[in-house]
């Protein structure tokens, strides 16, 4: 910076008592210019009171008319850094085009989670916004399912609860919940489009919804729904024998695979998320445990090695596919959990189950996808697939 100043001095205006320098341009190409005025800055740890900050940059202490100190300046600087880095404001804080304290606080809760009880006790004004259970009282009182689009603009343009998928309006599909707390929970955390154009669940404390607010894109459920199924290198007779065992002995009592759509994709030789090499190897590994065919063993005379070859291949594929998981990835991890437990490898079995459940949460299998279905963005088969995988993992964990 010193060398740049020597070679290209910045413009300045010299007055009798001070000099005013023109700021060097920041490395952003969009957004409004921000003027920094330190005239109201406070130093030291003394407590102060009053409204000192411009609208969307206000700290919660200022909004709630609490005593404040220098920490509110840290809050303001953080907001300005976000503006410069992201070229848009962190908080919208408006309702019907007007600055709204209620909306501003709701966005803060959506981003950072609810404030601690001791914080709410610092101001009587908190009672206007929070009830005794520390919920945003006015939101609960006013919230109606048909208003979800307006409220959820504070979280993510692509959330399923906000009534829109990409640029497609689905606001007619109202919430089926009769519990306003459940509805608020859905608004502040729900299904969104994540990496690889897959559905992801972002909780109320996630800031990813705000980071992606500027980048709405049309919804695509699977990244490549028509790619051919890669050969798995298994003798067709062995494969059919083991699949028959799986459908008759494994799937009926630990229901994890939606047979109709799996067989449809297998017959069409499509890797469309219903039938994948990873899922197929995990199914064959489990089924091999029921088979007395020495060809499914890594050591023909040792029945304890039945399915080991399929399992090893599935494990290798899992740690490749885990980078961009699908529902079939979850089911395969659950299969590997069952396989490890069947071999009396309980620790690794629980680890694979934990991976499956964590991915299930990540893909939002615990969320009701009714809005995506009513908009035509998700088929009934996809809903059934998600439900089977979620409850299958639940039953194994129990």
UniProtKB/TrEMBL annotation:
The keyword Oxidoreductase does not apply. It holds the Pfam family Fungal_trans. It comes from the Eukaryota. Residues 1-159 form the Protein kinase domain. Keywords: DNA-binding, Metal-binding, Nucleus, Transcription, Transcription regulation, Zinc. GO terms for molecular function: ATP binding; DNA binding; protein kinase activity; zinc ion binding. This is Protein kinase domain-containing protein.
